[in-house]
Design goal:
The complex is a heterotetramer of chains A (220), B (318), C (481) and D (669).
Chain A lengths: L2 H23 L3 H26 L3 H28 L11 H22 L5 H23 L3 H21 L6 H20 L3 H4 L5 H4 L8
Helix pairs in contact in A: 1-2, 1-5, 2-3, 2-6, 3-6, 3-7, 4-5, 5-6, 6-7
Chain C lengths: L6 H16 L5 H22 L14 H30 L5 H23 L3 H19 L5 H36 L8 H7 L5 H19 L7 H8 L2 H28 L7 H18 L6 H22 L1 H33 L10 H4 L1 H14 L6 H16 L1 H26 L15 H15 L3 H14 L1
Chain D lengths: L1 H22 L6 H24 L5 E5 L8 E5 L1 H24 L12 H14 L3 H19 L6 H29 L7 H6 L4 H19 L7 H8 L2 H26 L8 H21 L3 H28 L3 H36 L10 H4 L1 H14 L6 H14 L7 H32 L7 H4 L6 H19 L1 H16 L26 H22 L4 E4 L17 H16 L3 E5 L10 E5 L3 H21 L7 H22 L1
Antiparallel strand pairs in D: 1-2, 4-5
Helix pairs in contact in D: 1-2, 1-4, 2-3, 3-4, 3-10, 3-13, 3-19, 4-5, 4-10, 5-6, 6-8, 6-9, 8-10, 9-10, 9-12, 10-12, 10-13, 11-12, 11-17, 11-22, 12-13, 12-16, 12-17, 13-15, 13-16, 13-19, 13-20, 15-17, 15-19, 16-19
The chains are: A mainly alpha (220), B mainly alpha (318), C mainly alpha (481), D mainly alpha (669).
Chain lengths: 220, 318, 481, 669
């Protein structure tokens, strides 16, 4: 494993984390979607690179899925959703961006501390990947809980999934990665469909999750 | 032979208390009257009353039950048996083993139980007044009595009256605080139990104050006679109880000679007379207290009894 | 995957095939019968597993740990299909469902059974993950079946929370693989359970710890441990009652089973931190939280959903305490709870149909109008409250007494939680079955057979446990350490 | 052999329950079921009493049930045999009574299947010899009685009573469960034989003692855990009330004795202190409350609490003696406790039967609506009177015999070395004496208001005597009360094996003593002869009656009551239950019951009526139960909003849980 491979993988993984931050930073839905598409591209690149250096052809499938499905189809669909449902364009935040960013930095630090401490046995490449993947996951979750409307939550969830795929690809020689990524894509697809077609629209005039929650299990 | 003698002694004692009881009541009345500068009824007046009552017909309230009619005899029997168990002039009587001090207290308690029931049977308001007040007094007097029994039993190591009396005779007994407390408590209890002033006034029929009289208000004729006899028996019982515990001198020992027993009987009558006069003096010197001050009076008795018992419990190890 | 057509294969193939077939049949009576038939065949083949010992394959394996759960799943799946066959017709009449929905429902039912059987029988942690995700998706679709606002709300909540949980579980799985790789080498072996458990002692403990955190939170979300429980009450309350029964009776067990698998790993690794305290804490919090939440419930199904949370808490606590007694109790409690709770949901389904409402306040005096149903519910609730002569008592007896003997200060909150929950359950039960009865809206057609079958099993187990079962449990309890 | 018979009788009872379950709706199943229960109870009674009187050695059976690796242990020793006798006497009497009484039951199918199960549960508790079986039977007993309390479930009050009862029953079961957990140890030696093997450390022993006090006490009605009892016992049908008060509370006493005397190993002197104190306080408090009730059955339930208090006080004394190696004294106190338990079963069952008869005859439980029933219910009134006299500890009945033994035991306590006991024993003695006196007052009140005087309502005026079965049960129990009071020696000798097995001593042999007296320690110390006292009283009473009737007049005339010259028509001018209790309430009520009187007396000339209002507070309810319930309600209210959060907030819970755990991991090593 030569230095270039390591650096490149490192760089790509770092890109994903960076893009997650950028997503946290966005306050416009369209921009958010674009950044997400970008992250998907970065993901597919890094997966492809992993496929190259690990010599694992099946990872190319995963990369392809990431590229086609998440970099193109999903963002486009979500653009249409936003347009169709006439969601107001800005992202409604619970916590304002500044504190969110700080929290995100804290999360990245946490994940690096945890992961680097525990993966001494694994090879350095895997360590970096896992650490970055964990931070991407945490940032995605942070996004889900600090954003109000469904689209941005879906995006947050998908970035969590990006992190997972990154980790799966980084884990050298891990079997079933393709199956797993496929399964996940199904999940994501269902969520999007749920937002778009799957009855949400015919019931609610907004996909603001708060509206979904207005019925709170039991009427008080 | 011995057994027959024992039976004779026992029977003699029972008849003696029965014969003396009205006399004691009469004595107290007489003494009180004299102290009040009245001539007062003759000593034998109670006997006359009893006989006259037994001759009269019974006037029974319409809704009086069978219980109402048998209760007088039960009261009388209970009191009489209790009185028979107290060593009056002789110790170690035949049946003294059949019941100890606690049993005597309980016998009196059962007499009271039925008396209070009788008060409620006809369903008049006065009966209820008497019964409920009697019950209230009993709830304090009986525990006090039990505490006194504790004290004596702990001193003598027995709840058998004969043994207690014997112990009191023995030189082993010195002057004891607990005994003093017990004596005072016993006197207070005796006053309460017999419905004497200051607890109750046997001579009154003033509705607000009467207790015992209110319960027997509906009785008449022989029933009333039996009840009156029973109450004077009770008075006698308490006087002789105090006498045999705190002044046990002159008690004839077990299976004593006939003459000795006669002498003892004479001494006993003397004791009774003294006790009766003392009671009369006490009653004339103080006034009747309100019904709801009675608990304080009896509470004092209970506390004294408990104190006496506690002192003994603690001092046992010293 | 290549699967020999033995019992192991059948429990997967039969549901899968019948799911496909049911998706095509439109007549709901026929499909309901087919549903029952398929579940029955599954049950038979699951029972056959008891007698045929098969070698662990790369994907599938049957061992002492999962055999009991496979049989239990097949059994409850069968009884529930019987119940739903008699239940679902009524829904059609009242117009809450339409024939296409029913077609979908039956297909999904078999798909759910398939995925649960797969998750249980999987010898590969990746396969297990995929199967559990499938189970999640199918149940989400079924919870949303009624298309009421509430149903969609519940389904959506379940979906989002479940997906996040699934994501965590996947991350944990990846970490486990990474921990395994240095020891067992790259490739398939790194995910095959039987291999992992043999070599686990050499794994890097620190990595296992992190992995277990993710797995516990991930699968724990599916188990419904507080504070990850939020999806559970609504999903139970808004879906069709047979699905509520399957959810409480089976799916929670499957998720917990997954947690147990990984607990086995940690238990077998000397260096790893003991997972016990973590599970015990989560369990205790779930128990007390759910017990208190029970008091303010107004919806019957939601109340019993909270009681499921409570019992999952008890089970997690038992496994967290560890030791042969507590583990035995935990396994027993899992079995008893799934039988009892599904029986209770059967009864609740009847009640909802007869009285036309799920509001506790609108149902009274059942023992007067429907003695069989009412006393059946009484028996079920008594069982779930942990009172004899029913099986849950045995397990709670073991949990409490063994805990108190070892850590008294832990037993006190445990007992307090149990008492609080019992108080709430009994309070509501008295309101439901006693007092002046409320009028019916419809006659009850559904059959009582499944409910009483379950209760009979629980009753027998409360008095007499068959030695083979005990042997299984004791062996597994030994493994769980 | 006897053990087998007892187990078979349990099985038979369960079978009866099953049959009743299947055939209960078939109309007239009631008498048959109760007759069957009666037969089985008598068989069990015979078996247990033969085992007890023959003083045969304990026998054991292990059935392959319950916990698989332990099995269900059953054991019949003297103690168990005695309590089986007790339970089965109660069961037989109740069944006999119910053969007639059950005809008035509106929904018999709610009672029939549960009644035999209740009996079976009580029998099984006494037979159980391992913790699991014990608690199993214990809970079955509680559940069956809970369902029986709910027979008249349409009444809101009854539902509430049943709920409180069930929660308290579960509480007591959990307490016992924890106690057994300590005794059994971490590796779960739940068999009593194994537990007897090793004695726990003093600290653990104290823990077990506390738990046993709480667990058994809560079931038996020991203050301050007694509050459920006066709610639940009256709510059930009367024959069940009788069983609950007469038998079930004794089963709780049995649990206490079994754990503390038998399983807990060598006794320490201080074990007696809590039981002694709690017992004395319970006795006084219970009877005071009983005096204040106007509901007949509730008053009886409170008096049950009083008797439980006396029993526990005697048990505490016995523990103290045993701890100081005064075996004989300990045996005396234990005998007093057991004897009193037996007596309470006898007279309390009879009293509840009487209350049931009054209920069926008049439909009223409120004493203020009763009166004059001695004319309408002649036989019932006799049996009830005997039971009242017995529970008021009047010689020569059985209540006096056992309380006399208890006082004798207290009189031995000065020999105890510990100062705390020296001070406590006489104080408790005083409390018990007060309780006895109050009990007499209480039952004078009950009998006087219900049976004597004039009827206070038309129902009472039109009452009719109940059926022969009920009367037979009441008369039989009254006869047993008299018998046990006249020949206490037989009971004491019968109990000797139990005391042998528990404290290693017994009271002196009573059978050989002349005139059938009983002598606790030595004749010079104290002796009592119920038979002789009875003969005396009877003889002198009849002599007096005979003499007067013979020598003086026997004339008798009926006339209106004189009443001091104010004959009044209305029965309402009689003393009522409340007014009878008023003096005692003024004396004791202020402290013990928080009794408050509010008199609103209009000034002269005003026309508005004067008003009198009375407040009674059950302090345990207000200071123990309500705070706990309030705390739970508060927590529930605070937590409830968590049901109404948004998905995002739920997600954030998950998120924070994850972050927390990760941080912990990061800080771990």
């Amino acid at each position: 494993m030569d230095a270039l491979a390591f650096d490149l993988a490192h760089l790509l993984a770092g890109c994903l984390v960076l893009l997650s931050f950028t997503m946290l930073y966005q306050d416009r839905l369209y921009a958010l979607l674009n950044v997400f598409a970008l992250q998907a591209v970065a993901l597919s690149l890094s997966v492809a690179w992993q496929a190259w250096i690990q010599g694992a052809p099946h990872l190319y499938v995963t990369a392809a899925i990431a590229l086609v499905f998440k970099a193109i189809i999903i963002p486009v669909t979500l653009h249409r959703v936003v347009a169709k449902l006439g969601i107001h364009r800005e992202v409604e935040t619970v916590v304002s961006v500044g504190p969110t960013m700080l929290a995100g930095i804290g999360l990245v630090a946490l994940s690096i501390v945890v992961m680097l401490r525990v993966t001494v046995a694994a090879d350095p490449l895997a360590r970096e990947d896992i650490a970055f993947a964990l931070s991407v996951v945490l940032l995605g979750l942070l996004m889900m809980i600090t954003r109000r409307n469904a689209v941005s939550q879906v995006v947050g969830f998908m970035s969590i999934e990006n992190g997972l795929i990154l980790a799966a690809a980084g884990a050298k020689g891990m079997p079933l990665v393709v199956e797993i990524s496929v399964a996940f894509s199904v999940l994501v697809a269902l969520i999007v469909i749920g937002v778009f077609l799957f009855r949400i629209r015919e019931r609610f005039d907004t996909v603001d999750v708060a509206a979904l929650d207005r019925f709170q299990g039991e009427r008080r | 032979m011995g057994l027959i003698a024992d039976f004779a002694a026992q029977g003699a004692q029972m008849l003696l208390v029965l014969a003396l009881a009205p006399g004691l009541t009469g004595l107290v009345r007489k003494a009180k009257a004299r102290l009040l500068r009245r001539r007062g009824p003759p000593l034998l007046q109670p006997y006359r009353d009893l006989i006259r009552l037994t001759r009269k017909e019974v006037v029974l309230a319409e809704n009086a039950s069978w219980l109402f009619r048998i209760i007088p005899y039960m009261i009388f029997a209970g009191t009489w048996v209790a009185a028979a168990l107290v060593p009056t002039f002789a110790r170690g009587l035949l049946f003294s083993w059949s019941a100890d001090l606690i049993a005597i207290v309980a016998l009196l308690g059962s007499a009271r139980f039925f008396l209070t029931l009788a008060g409620m049977d006809v369903g008049t308001s006065f009966g209820g007044v008497g019964s409920s007040r009697e019950a209230m007094i009993a709830t304090l007097a009986e525990p006090a009595m039990i505490m006194i029994v504790f004290t004596l039993a702990l001193l003598a190591g027995s709840t058998q009256l004969s043994v207690v009396a014997g112990f009191m005779l023995s030189p082993a007994i010195g002057l004891r605080v607990s005994l003093g407390l017990a004596l005072i408590a016993l006197i207070m209890v005796a006053i309460a139990e017999n419905g004497r002033i200051p607890i109750d006034n046997p001579a009154t029929h003033l509705e607000l104050t009467m207790v015992h009289e209110a319960m027997v208000l509906e009785y008449s004729g022989r029933h009333l006679a039996v009840i009156e006899l029973a109450s004077s028996l009770k008075l006698l019982l308490y006087v002789s109880l105090i006498a045999c515990v705190f002044a046990p001198w002159g008690l004839a020992p077990l299976r004593a000679h006939f003459v000795a027993q006669l002498g003892a009987a004479a001494i006993y009558v003397g004791k009774l007379a003294v006790g009766g006069v003392l009671l009369a003096v006490f009653e004339t010197t103080i006034a009747k207290m309100r019904v709801f001050r009675v608990p304080d009076f009896l509470g004092v008795a209970l506390m004294l009894g408990l104190l006496g018992a506690l002192l003994l419990f603690v001092s046992r190890s010293l | 995957m290549s699967i020999a057509i033995d019992g192991l294969g059948l429990i997967l193939i039969v549901p899968a095939a019948s799911a496909a077939a049911l998706a095509l049949i439109s007549d709901y009576r026929l499909s309901a019968r087919l549903n029952m038939l398929a579940s029955f065949v599954t049950l038979i083949s699951a029972l056959s597993l008891l007698f045929s010992k098969s070698e662990p394959g790369p994907y599938l394996n049957v061992d002492d740990l999962n055999i009991v759960f496979i049989v239990l799943t097949a059994l409850v799946g069968f009884t529930t299909s019987v119940f739903s066959a008699s239940y679902i017709g009524h829904e059609l009449e009242t117009g809450r469902l339409s024939p296409p929905h029913l077609r979908f429902y039956h297909a999904m039912y078999q798909a759910l059974l398939f995925s649960m059987n797969l998750a249980l029988a999987a010898n590969n942690i990746g396969v297990m993950w995929v199967a559990i995700e499938m189970a999640t998706l199918t149940t989400v679709l079924m919870v949303g079946l009624y298309r009421t606002r509430e149903a969609i709300e519940a389904a959506w909540k379940y979906f989002i929370l479940g997906s996040v949980g699934i994501a965590f579980a996947l991350f944990g799985t990846i970490l486990v693989y990474m921990a395994a790789r240095p020891v067992v080498g790259e490739g398939f072996d790194g995910m095959i359970w039987t291999v992992l458990i043999e070599r686990v002692s050499a794994f890097d403990p620190a990595l296992l710890d992190v992995a277990f955190v993710f797995l516990l939170l991930g699968y724990g979300t599916k188990v419904g441990l507080a504070p990850l429980h939020a999806w559970l009450p609504d999903a139970h309350a808004e879906g069709p009652t047979p699905i509520s029964a399957v959810l409480s009776g089976l799916l929670l067990n499957v998720a917990l089973y997954a947690v147990l698998r990984f607990k086995l790993l940690l238990a077998a690794n000397p260096g790893a931190l003991a997972p016990g305290p973590l599970m015990a804490t989560l369990g205790l919090s779930s128990l007390i939280f759910a017990g208190l939440m029970l008091y303010r419930r107004r919806d019957i199904k939601r109340m019993f959903a909270y009681s499921s949370i409570e019992h999952m808490g008890i089970i997690a606590f038992a496994f967290g305490m560890g030791g042969p007694l507590a583990n035995f109790a935990g396994l027993l409690h899992m079995t008893m709870h799934s039988l009892t709770k599904s029986a209770i949901f059967f009864a609740v389904g009847h009640i909802a149909q007869v009285k036309g409402t799920q509001r506790i306040a609108d149902v009274r005096g059942l023992t007067v109008t429907h003695p069989v149903l009412g006393w059946g519910l009484v028996m079920g609730v008594i069982a779930i409250a942990g009172l004899p002569p029913l099986g849950v008592f045995t397990s709670e007896f073991l949990v409490v007494s063994s805990t108190f003997a070892r850590q008294p200060w832990l037993a006190l909150p445990l007992v307090a939680g149990l008492l609080v929950a019992l108080g709430a359950l009994m309070l509501r039960l008295q309101g439901l079955v006693f007092g002046e009865p409320t009028p019916d809206v419809a006659p009850s057609q559904a059959s009582y057979a499944p409910m009483f079958a379950h209760l009979a099993l629980v009753f027998v187990a409360g008095i007499y446990l068959p030695p083979p079962l005990v042997a299984w449990f004791q062996h597994v309890a030994g493994l769980l350490g | 052999m006897a053990l087998v018979v007892c187990l078979l009788s349990v099985v038979a009872l369960l079978l009866i329950a099953a049959i009743a379950l299947l055939s209960a709706r078939a109309g007239r199943a009631g008498p048959a079921v109760y007759a069957a229960c009666l037969a089985v109870s008598l068989i069990g009674l015979a078996a247990a009493s033969t085992h007890l009187l023959a003083a045969s050695s304990p026998s054991e059976i292990i059935a392959p049930l319950g916990l698989p690796w332990i099995g269900a242990h059953f054991r019949l020793d003297a103690l168990a045999a005695f309590f089986l006798v007790l339970v089965n006497i109660g069961g037989a009497a109740a069944s006999l009574y119910a053969i007639g009484y059950s005809r008035h039951e509106a929904e018999p199918w709610r009672v029939l299947p549960l009644y035999p199960a209740f009996l079976a549960g009580m029998n099984l508790v006494a037979l159980a010899d391992d913790a699991f079986t014990f608690l199993f039977a214990w809970e079955v007993m509680s559940l069956a009685s809970w369902a029986l309390v709910l027979v008249h479930h349409r009444d809101e009050e009854n539902r509430r009573a049943a709920y409180v009862y069930l929660v308290m029953a579960a509480f007591s079961a959990f307490a016992l469960l924890l106690a057994f957990g300590v005794l059994a140890g971490p590796d779960g030696g739940y068999a009593f034989a194994a537990i007897r093997g090793h004695a726990p450390s003093p600290l653990l022993a104290g823990l077990v003692l506390a738990l046993a006090m709480v667990g058994a006490g809560a079931k038996a009605g020991l203050a301050p855990l007694h509050v459920w009892l006066p709610l639940a016992h009256p709510a059930a049908p009367s024959h069940v009330s009788a069983l609950m008060s007469g038998a079930m509370t004794k089963v709780a006493v049995y649990a206490f004795i079994r754990i503390v005397f038998d399983l807990l190993g060598p006794v320490a002197w201080w074990w007696g202190v809590p039981a002694l104190a709690a017992g004395g306080i319970t006795a006084a408090l219970g009877v005071l409350n009983a005096l204040m009730q106007s509901d007949l059955k509730r008053a009886l339930a409170y008096s049950t609490i009083e008797n439980i208090g006396i029993i526990f006080a005697a048990l505490g004394l016995s523990l103290a003696f045993a701890g100081d190696h005064m075996a004989a004294a300990s045996a005396l106190a234990l005998i007093a406790a057991l004897f009193h338990a037996l007596n309470h079963t006898l007279f309390k069952s009879a009293l509840f039967f009487g209350a049931g008869a009054v209920l069926t005859a008049t439909g009223a439980r409120d004493m203020e609506r009763l009166g004059g029933l001695i004319h309408r219910l002649p036989t019932t009134s006799v049996a009830f009177l005997v039971a009242c006299a017995a529970i008021s500890a009047l010689p020569p009945l059985n209540g006096f015999a056992s309380e006399w033994l208890a006082l004798q035991a207290i009189l031995l306590s000065p020999d105890l070395p510990q100062w705390s006991l020296k001070l406590l024993a006489p104080a408790i003695g005083a409390l018990i004496a007060v309780a006895a006196a109050l009990a007499a007052a209480c039952f004078v009140r009950i009998y006087g208001i219900v049976f004597l005087g004039r009827p206070r309502s038309p129902e009472a005026a039109a009452a009719h005597e109940v059926d022969a079965w009920s009367l037979a049960a009441m008369i039989g129990l009254a006869a047993l009360c008299a018998l046990a009071g006249l020949l206490p020696g037989l009971v004491i000798d019968g109990l000797a094996p139990a005391t042998w097995s528990l404290v290693g001593a017994r009271m002196p042999e009573q059978a050989g003593i002349p005139w059938l007296s009983i002598v606790p320690v030595a004749e010079s110390r104290s002796s009592y002869n119920g038979l002789l006292v009875f003969v005396f009283v009877a003889a002198s009473a009849s002599i007096a009656a005979f003499a007067i009737h013979r020598l003086a007049s026997r004339a008798l005339r009926r006339a209106p009551a004189w009443d001091c010259g104010f004959p009044d028509a209305s029965p309402l001018t009689q003393y009522s239950a409340a007014s009878f209790a008023q003096p005692i309430r003024r004396v004791f009520g202020g402290y013990a019951l928080g009794a408050r009187e509010f008199v609103d007396m209009p000034a002269p000339g005003e026309i508005r009526p004067a008003r009198f209002r009375l407040e009674l507070h059950d302090l345990a309810w207000e200071h123990l139960y309500q705070p706990v319930a309030g705390a739970v309600a508060f927590a529930a209210d605070r937590l409830n909003p968590l049901q109404f959060r948004t998905i995002r907030q739920y997600l954030s819970f998950v998120f924070f849980a994850l972050v927390l755990l990760l941080v912990i991991l990061a800080l771990w090593a």
